[in-house]
Each structure stands twice: as structure tokens, then as C-alpha cells.
Amino acid sequence: VVNNDEDSYYTSPGIRQTAPPFMIALQKTNVYCGYKFESLDCMMLSSLLKHKQCRTSRLVLHEIDARHANFEFDLITAISQCRSLRSLYILSGVWTNTAISGIFKGIQEENPRLCDIYIEDMKFDHKNCNYSDTLTTNVGILLKNYFNYAVPCMNSITLHKCGLRTEDVLPLVHGLQINSSIRKLILSNNLIEDDGFISIYSAIMYNAKKTQVHLLDFNCNLIKLQEPMRKCIDNFQILCEINHGKDLKNSNSNSTIGTGTGIGIDEKKEIPLSFMKFPLELYLLYNPIIVPYELPLNYKIRSMCKLFGVPKIDDGIVTGMKSNSNTNTNSNS
Fold first, then answer.
1. 60 conformational bin, left if phi > 0, alpha if psi -120 to 50, beta if neither
2. Among the ranges 107-111, 151-155, 267-271, which has the highest mean pLDDT value?
3. Could you tell me the pTM of the whole model?
């Protein structure tokens, strides 16, 4: 996910802010901190990020042991004050719920300039407590905050391999119902089932403002694509036809479409005609899908599920699925 050159690896800039090492460190746009990153380094990095001349736009924290107090009191404050920071990557490591909550609160209240958040493999902390509640609650609050989708905008959020379950997505649903800036939502390698997908998908569809989401990644979850979910996806085709003027003569200004059951979503709501002017990229690779399914042509999708072989793809659009009789050998190979 992250490509780093040698210049991006963190090196201690020293204490003196007028020394050449510190001035060189201020000019780095990418900073990568690995497993050797310690509490003393945390203080040094914090002084860099707080500096007015700091140019760091991407910060990667990979396999960091963040249990020391310096991370909570120094690094979180620095992230919230760094005006050049646009992307934050937290990849595995040992964190506490307090530290994770502090980072999101700092972004929400102090640094709405940050556009991309990528969190991977944050299942349990050192006390074996689950992160899913903390992550989804704070992301939901972030999505609902006006400044985080207006100045300049929250562009993408990734919660990959975070142990999220269907019941954990409710805060995300509430945020997606009003957010008008996020373009990519990646929830791959979790434990989300059909109802969770329906809830998130419906929240985007029934967005009170104008949604900008064009990529949903649900690879490696527990999605079976059962009838309620297929119905939910089929309704998108109807909505797209209305938006493209095919049924405008026979339709009112709004269309009422049911989506089946979901978490935190009513069965029927009014959908504005301004919904989505671009194709939706939907990724459902490596899910336990139980039946082959032909997606509406408005979906830009690479593949449905490895269990059913490779779908027929024309310019990135799925036009059909292979039958069961032809896919057993493909899946075995």
C-alpha cells in the first residue's frame, strides 16, 4: 500500500531546531516510522510536525508500540497541529483505545485539512480489547463533522483488517448519511455480512446532501449476496435510469425505493435525482457469495468472487457471471 524511498525513513533531527539535520527533516514530505521508533523519537517527531515550516504531507506509523505516554500527549497533539499533513497511515502496532480516540478527536477539532486516513490490522490492544467500537464511533463522528467534509475535505477512509462486524457499522451509517466529501470507503478483510453492506450502501444512496462516494471495497468479508442485498443493488440500476432521464416523464422529482433490511436504515425513503453522476466501483472479491449474479451495467467492478471464476468483463464492467458447472474447475485451479 505504501511505497517508501530511503529519504522518507525517519531519522532523528536532534533537539536544536536551527541545526542542519532539523532543517533537512522539515523539508521531507513523506515520513515513515517503523518498529524501531521509540518514545524519545516520538518527542523529536512531534517537534518537527509542530514547526511552522514543516512540509510533511504523509505520515506512516508502521508496527509502532504506542503505549508510552509520549505518544498520547506529544504525537497526537502534533498531528492535530500539523498544517501540512494530508495523509495518515496507522499500520498494525500496539495502540490503546485512548490514543486512537485522541488522534481522531485531534483531526476533528483541530486539523480538518487531513484528507486520507488508512488504518490496518487494529484488532486488539495490549489488554486484548477490541478496537472496532472505538474506530467506527470516531470515524462516524468525523464523517458527520462539517469542517471535515468542507475544509478542504475528507477524501478517503480505510479500515482494513480491523475485525469490524455488521453491528459495528452503525456509526459509519450515520456519518455517511450526511457526508458530502468522502470518495473512497475501504472496509476490506473484516467480518461484515449482507445487512452491514445494505446499511452502508443505503446510507450513501439516501444521503441528505450530495454524496461523492464512487468506490466501496468490501473484499474479504462475509458477504453472501443473498436476495435482500441483490434487491438493494438492483434498485441502483432503477435510480441511474431515472437520473439519466429515461423515466423522467413518468416519474416525480423523487423516487421511493425499498432496500430491504439493514442496520439503522428505514425500509423506504425518498431518493433525490441528483444521486451519483459517475459509475460506482464495488469490490466484492473473496466473499462467500452463494449464487452467481449479474450486476447492473452502471457498476464498474473488477471481479465478483474467486469461487465462481472470472466474470466476463468489458472495459471494467461486469456483464455476466459464469455458471456453477463451469466454475468448479476454475476455483480449484
1. beta
2. 107-111
3. 0.79
